[in-house]
Amino acid sequence: MQQNDHTTQKVVILGAGFGGLSAAIELGRLKKRRRKQNSQFDLEIIVIDRNDFQLFTPDLYEIASAAKDITDEKKLKQAVCIDVRIGLGQESVGFLKAVIESVDPINKQVLTSKGEVDYDYLIVAPGSEPFYFGISGMAEHSIPFKWIQDAVTIRSTIQRLMEEKEQVHVIVCGAGPAGVELAAELRTMCERIMSRQCFGLTLVEGRGTVLPQFNERVQRAGYKRLRQLGIIVKSNFVITHAEEGKVISKTGETLTGDLIIWTGGVKASSLLEHSGVTLTPRGQIAVHNTLQSQQFPDVFVIGDAAECQVADGVYTPMTAHEAVHQGPVAARNVFHLLQRESLEAYHVKDEGFVITMGGKNGIVVLPGGKYIVKGVIGWFMRQYVDFRHFRTVLPFMKACTLWYSGMKMMSKNDPE
Ligand SMILES: Cc1cc2nc3c(=O)[nH]c(=O)nc-3n(C[C@H](O)[C@H](O)[C@H](O)COP(=O)(O)OP(=O)(O)OC[C@H]3O[C@@H](n4cnc5c(N)ncnc54)[C@H](O)[C@@H]3O)c2cc1C
User: Fold this and answer.
1) CA of 115 to the centre of ligand 1 (A)
2) Are 295 and 260 contacting, i.e. CB atoms less than 8 angstroms apart?
3) CB under 6 Å to ligand 1: residues?
4) Out of 2, 13, 312, 351, which residue is the most buried by the measure of CB atoms under 10 Å away?
5) Strand 9-14 vs strand 43-49: parallel, antiparallel, or unpaired?
């Protein structure tokens, strides 16, 4: 080890989401292993996040559509919020609950709502936020589908509307996986739980098909299932303007609804604008394949915040899957820098994708994207993927409890 053992090096990780937490856990493990070889070795690792939980976004649609008889909101939130202190505690990693305000990469300092934090190495993982592509009125007249409170608001708004009105119509904007999963689950919940007429649901997409990022087979299967559930699909509907209860397309067509939900896009966190690093035209930080910032070698960027080119003009997608694989690579590369070793390159791992389609139904896109599996197997696969993630960030029994309690609560809406 080349590190001077008298000066403890400090790694600060911004964000305890998919990327940040997986990086912190890997760093904690590396530190433990190193200390077994050399008891003098020390490394300070601190994770900073405004929340002390990691939001498990893949199951967020379950919160928006949770059964009416679940009245304990705290319990409901717990089903998708992973306690980061438990995850970090098992690896002796420090945690600071604070809002990150800016980064000064020249002086190696992070400014937070609780003061300044110095670092030797920084891993930036603040994720993303809703992006409206300049659609006038959309931010004001829709509920985004990004954070836990959005899901809770969607649920309570639908319940209130169903009590107040005879006929309710919901518009979901964006037919990527998040919009499709939400639309399918809302309709399933509605048919199973609501005693009177179910609310109408229109899924709007600017491109020519639902699930545009997948191949035709997946798109066809998705469309078929959405139609089966009674969802109206409006593709090639490029929204240019939104008003109270209305979305208007570039051809002048208007759709009206009682609730508009936006799942149409995200952009990298606006925190990056205060990071002292030059941003790419997509608002991310450009990284080498080692996930190291192209400008500051002691800064690593992962997850939705990173623009990581994997082929000519092809960048890693903004998914949890990428973030959890990038985290450990960034962690190992910090360690390599400490030891003055050459760095590891990040390689995209194709593990397929699962899209849930309402109730115990889903589409599994197998690695390579050529083959798909539909139906209840999709739901089982999703359960497995969820558990695998919980297990990587939590001790075994905690992971089992979280998975089981979430599954029990969320299956309440599902048809037998
Ligand atoms: C509804 C929905 C469903 C999704 N489903 C899937 C799916 O099924 N599969 C999949 O692969 N991906 C899915 N995604 C995408 C996935 O959630 C993101 O790609 C992933 O979260 C990115 O990980 P990250 O570590 O970059 O950011 P995040 O996981 O978002 O973590 C960022 C963290 O930084 C913290 N933070 C940000 N700014 C600040 C600040 N200023 N101060 C303090 N803390 C801050 C946040 O609190 C958060 O904890 C979904 C996204 C959504 C919205």
Assistant:
1) 24
2) no
3) 15-20, 49-51, 54, 57-58, 60, 99-100, 125-127, 145-146, 177-178, 269, 271, 303-305, 318-321, 323
4) 13
5) parallel
Q: Which domains does the chain have, with CATH numbers?
A: 9-50+98-130+267-338 (3.50.50.60), 138-264+352-413 (3.50.50.100)
Q: Which of 271, 305, 268 is nearest to 100 (CA)?
A: 271
Ligand 1 centroid from CA 383, angstroms: 19
Residue in 358, 303, 373, 411 with CA at minimum distance from that of residue 55: 303
Backbone angles phi and psi of 415, in degrees to 5 = -60, 150
**Per-residue pLDDT reduced to its tens digit, 54-80:** 999 999 999 999 887 787 888 888 899
pTM: 0.94
**What is the atom index within ligand 1 of the atom nearest the CA of 151?**
1
Do residues 367 and 351 make contact, with C-beta atoms less than 8 angstroms apart? yes
